[in-house]
Amino acid sequence: MEKNGEVLKIFTIPQRFPCGPASSCCGPIGLTEEEVNFLVNTARKVFPGEIKVFNLLEEEVQMNNKQVVSLVSSLGWGCLPIISLDDKIVSIGMPSSEEELLETLKSNLT
């Protein structure tokens, strides 16, 4: 399944509450550590290559991933996580289930 040098990249930010944790106007943005671990562990079931997680708040990550930054600029932080396979965007937003993520990844590996 793995092609030479394939890298699966997960772009997100640590979970934060822009209006405060008790605010009723909006929910959190970004992912918890548990959600990131879920994505990585699920991806490992079908992807044997390297998996990297990137924090989009880091300037170097932003400078090296203009396509992802452009998506976040257009869609807002709520579009995270963004998952790419060899710099091709394969998923935007949190998958609703493990099966959905597995199916998305499988369809982009063949």
Present the secondary structure layout.
Blueprint: E1 7-12, H1 33-44, E2 50-55, H2 59-64, H3 66-75, E3 82-85, E4 88-92, H4 98-109
3D structure, described in words:
With 110 residues, the chain is an alpha+beta fold. It has a single domain (7-109), classed as Glutaredoxin (3-Layer(aba) Sandwich). The chain has helices at residues 33-44, 59-64, 66-75, 98-109; strands at 7-12, 50-55, 82-85, 88-92. Strands 2-1-3-4 form a 4-stranded mixed β-sheet, covered by helices on one side. A hairpin with a 2-residue loop joins strand 3 (82-85) and strand 4 (88-92). The mean pLDDT is 90.
Architecture per CATH nomenclature, i.e. the level-2 architecture: 3-Layer(aba) Sandwich
Number of helices: 4
The major beta sheet can be summarized as: 4 strands, mixed
Looking at the structure, what is the overall shape?
Answer: globular
Class in CATH? Alpha Beta
Indicate the low-confidence ranges by residue numbers.
none
Radius of gyration: 14 Å
CATH topology: Glutaredoxin
Number of domains: 1
Report helical residue fraction. Answer: 25-40%
Q: What is the CATH homology-level superfamily?
A: Glutaredoxin
Q: Estimate what percentage of residues fall within beta strands.
A: 15-25%
Give the strand tally. 4
* Average pLDDT, all residues: 90
